[in-house]
Amino acid sequence: MWFERDTIVTKPKPDIVILPSLLAADFGHLEDAARKAEAAGADGLHLDIMDGHFVPNLSMGPDVVKMARRCVRIPLSVHLMMSRPDRFNFIERFIDAGADPLLIHIEAECDIPDALRRIRTAGVKPGLTLNPDTPVESIAQYVDSVDEVLCMSVHPGYGGQKFMPSVLNKIHRLALAAHRREKPQSLSVDGGIDLNTAVQVCRQGATVLIAGTALFGAPDMALAIREMRDAARAAYSQFTQEAQTSV
Length: 247
Ligand code: DX5
Ligand code: ZN
Fold this sequence. Notes:
With 247 residues, the protein is of the alpha/beta class. The protein contains eight helices and eight strands. The radius of gyration is 17 Å and the shape is globular.
């Protein structure tokens, strides 16, 4: 491996994890954008991989992940919006480039357990993503074999879309289920996350916030991250209090 995994700095289990999405950065200055997010206090970077088939857009490939890995020491959460992440050794190529966690979609046209196994076998945390219209039940049989469940709160393919409140109920159900586990998975939300919607999703039990436009578009990213973290933390503690009393 061209980089040492133990040089990656994972901060001591923050209750709320904030991941700026590089899709919203200026593609002419991606290295600067990655460094800026790290300096602003991001817990990791989120990289969106689009194949022009699963979603109607193309974005970046393993080389961009590799560039980010070279620039920053925080983890790289890589979101594969691909119909066939299992082909052409894509899983292994993104892992070699530095992805961890690596997230595939439940709607992908591949053998899901096998893809998750390949990620795990490579020593990387596997995650499973659901589109806004995909029911929670669709991941029931795989949920124990992943470290992260990612709920899309927009139809994937583009940054800058409006958050869909219809996913709040799904987040709540997934969060309650995760909360009851001995080792809860991370519950992430991606799409239209800003200060206001971050509060809404963390109130329902989400712990990982992926935000592109709101963070890269902020005049002061460090301040935007701090404000988002504080507000999200307060909202999440309301969720945990409620979840404890409802057991
Ligand atoms: C959408 C991507 C998101 C996107 C979020 O397909 O998966 O990660 O970058 O961008 P914003 O925060 O602008 O909605
Ligand atoms: Zn994403």
